């Protein structure tokens, strides 16, 4: 009882600080009777530009959303957020269904749509209702949790980054191949998150892909991240070098990914722009701890054994 009273006082304090009306209070609390009582306050906004409809949608109070639809639909907060975006972000499927006809297609000040918010959280039912927004890309840098993402992010990229398989499957036909301002696709977002299974779903994006700034191939990306299944898929790119002369084996070795090193040994004799081989790179790394030291030693032994066997074969042939 005491705890509930404290929570209630904290909420009340928040409403007062934001200059929220009785209608806003009722909408956020899900009090449909009070919403009807204070419906004459519809249209007013708090200090953040939020309306009563936004609060009701954010909390998923469908009985409060209904009477406010005709009065406040289509409005945006100071940051450009709509009631639909808030409902999608919070996974309020019924609210999304009611709001989509009037607010679908709107974007906030960063170009983020309701579909993107749903995709980022993995809310598949909300995403299914919002597929008409597929193909949109952000128009400014945007912050998601602790990470700032570049211009051009799509809903598919956000779903891939979060490992939301069902949403990825839903959006694949609509957004496959789209790239952000750095040339990265949804495949890269899954790869950077270490999500091998999701990245495998998106490999068709990467056929013939090369990072134009560094001449880095999909094989190099997979090797650097330690994803052997994807390394196998891109083995046909073996032998290529980036702008610094690095190969996929060098990237795998530098990061002590032994499983990937074993798959890329045909590159063992190649030297980069600095004259280093993959073995040189592995041996130059200062491991941060004993576990890492063991992994680097393993990679070095794999490459040394391959080079020794190759040398013996060559000597046998020359005789």
UniProtKB/TrEMBL annotation:
Q: Name one Pfam family in it.
A: Ank_2
Check the record and name the InterPro entries matching this protein: Ankyrin_rpt, Ankyrin_rpt-contain_sf
Highest taxon in the source lineage? Eukaryota
Which PROSITE patterns does this chain map to? ANK_REP_REGION, ANK_REPEAT
Ranges for the ANK repeats: 151-172
**SMART domains listed in its UniProt record:** ANK
Keywords assigned: ANK repeat
PANTHER family (alphabetical):
GH07239P
Q: What is this protein called?
A: Ankyrin repeat protein 1
The organism is Giardia muris
Tell me the lineage of the source organism.
Eukaryota, Metamonada, Diplomonadida, Hexamitidae, Giardiinae
